[in-house]
Amino acid sequence: MSNSRKMRLRLLLLLLLCEAQGHAAPRPNFVLLMADDLGIGDPGCYGNTTLRTPNIDRLAAEGVKLTQHLAASPLCTPSRAAFMTGRYPIRSGMASQSFIGVFIFSASSGGLPTSEITFAKLLKNQGYSTALIGKWHLGTNCHNKTDFCHHPLSHGFDYFHGIPVTNLRDCKPGEGSVFTRGIRVLVFIPLQIIAITLLTLAVLKCLGLLHVPPVVFFCLLCLAAMILGLLLCFLHYFRPLNCFLMRNHEITQQPLSYDSLTQRLTADAAQFIRRNAGTPFLLLLSYLHVHTALFSSPDFAGHSQHGAYGDAAEELDWSVGQILNVLDELKLANNTLVYFTSDQGAHVEEVTTKGEVHGGSNGIYKGGKANNWEGGIRIPGILRWPGVIQAGLVIDEPTSNMDIFPTVAKLAGSPLPEDRIIDGHDLMPLLQGKTQHSDHEFLFHYCNFYLNAVRWHPRNSTSVWKAFFFTPKFSPEGANGCFSTHVCFCHGHFVSRHHPPLLFDVAKDPGERTPLSPATEPRFREILAVMQQAADRHAETLQAVPNQLSLGNVLWKPWLQMCCSSSGLSCQCDRENQAKGASR
């Protein structure tokens, strides 16, 4: 071949390569929608016939519905840590060894470590504009109230507008308190003991049976007064100190107002999309709905068939519709992967003193939030990308909320970190029909720090085995939750341990009603042996890391307390309207 012909061939190949690159599909945008405590039995597309969720249902009709989509943890903080990093929360220290499994104070020092890599950080490095609007719940500060080491802006988000902790009953006047049991144990019982002691000493002194110096009575009365004073301070200051809105690093509303809150956050999410319509973007809209305290605007209050919970759920669905409408209006729908989910199952123990049900539905599944029965971890999972993902597809393979991390990273062109284990798997081969089987042969279900159950989906089988090493003791007996403690706990006398483990085939018994035995499953011991070996191999991959949810990291620290005013602990301001104009 002559040199001139070789040169022409090289030029032709170069032109073809440039042409191919010029027509390469642009990187997609990502809109990730996460509800809080929404049960898999709540949306219409998962079987609910009385809650109106037309926009979530539309997503499912236009995309893929996952029917065995699983939260990596049945609690907010660890589940969200796993979602953001693609890793089991025990790997990042976001799995508690105590009874407190989430952050409840804004002035806690624990949080998602700066060493962790979120999908937002990966995408920001790829040139994406990134925003988190809504709930964070993964910590704020470490050493002082301005270091923001755990803040969303330190984890790859360019913009944050929302609450740094979580929505609680205590944040809304008249909605009760999540601390009722703690107040009873730490306040009322000590006061009763002091009262009985005072009465006993007074009687003995009157009868001349015991000489009691007046200073003893004085000290006991002072102790009682101090306990009561601390309680009153706690009840008065908790709301403003922990329930507030931030925009980036600035507090914009303290305490937060629920008036049109969903509308405000939805409008901000829509504005972010409009501002970044010409560049790749990642939006995580992390709803406060439907975690208690329940709230809704006048357009939705009193309109559902399920009281305050239904009103909130239908307002959540409205917001989803607003985001989809903006994508359609800007002609971005065909280049945007939309994902809808919940951080864990519905909180079935959420019942008011008046008997009103403030928790959602987990459908046919047992249990709920804070336990690893299917009702606690099986969550809605819907993905839509027109022209790329087949519309109306239903996939009944085990998938995890940890899978979003590698899926988003690969689509954005980012390599995965090589210095750590990523537990999630890319979902695209499954979503596009290139494989019919989940990459998750084994999944490990943690109750906070403790390995609770193992899931095994053998490659050559339709069975999905699930083995429990322990299960929570539901109370009262026969109930579908831990109503006496409001949530189920993970150790001590609150659980029943199983030797051998409790085994189910959730493919045949999704409600986990009938445990298997050697009499009903001939391979019983063989199956359990394989699952134990998998658990042992998994344990070998774990490394000791600082416990971000230790009592020392969870408890309130006054030097970390953020306040929008300098006048003591009054902490009251409303800068939402002013900050709105300055938002990015």
TrEMBL record:
The chain crosses the membrane at residues 185-204, 216-238. Residues 1-24 form the signal peptide. SUPFAM superfamilies: Alkaline phosphatase-like (SSF53649). GO terms for cellular component: endoplasmic reticulum. CDD domains: ES. PROSITE patterns: SULFATASE_1, SULFATASE_2. Its cofactor is Ca(2+). Keywords: Calcium, Hydrolase, Membrane, Metal-binding, Signal, Transmembrane, Transmembrane helix. The keyword Phosphoprotein does not apply. Pfam families: Sulfatase (PF00884), Sulfatase_C (PF14707). Residues 28-413 form the Sulfatase N-terminal domain. PANTHER family: ARYLSULFATASE FAMILY MEMBER, STERYL-SULFATASE. Belongs to the sulfatase family. This is Steroid sulfatase. The lineage of its organism: Eukaryota, Metazoa, Chordata, Craniata, Vertebrata. The gene is STS.
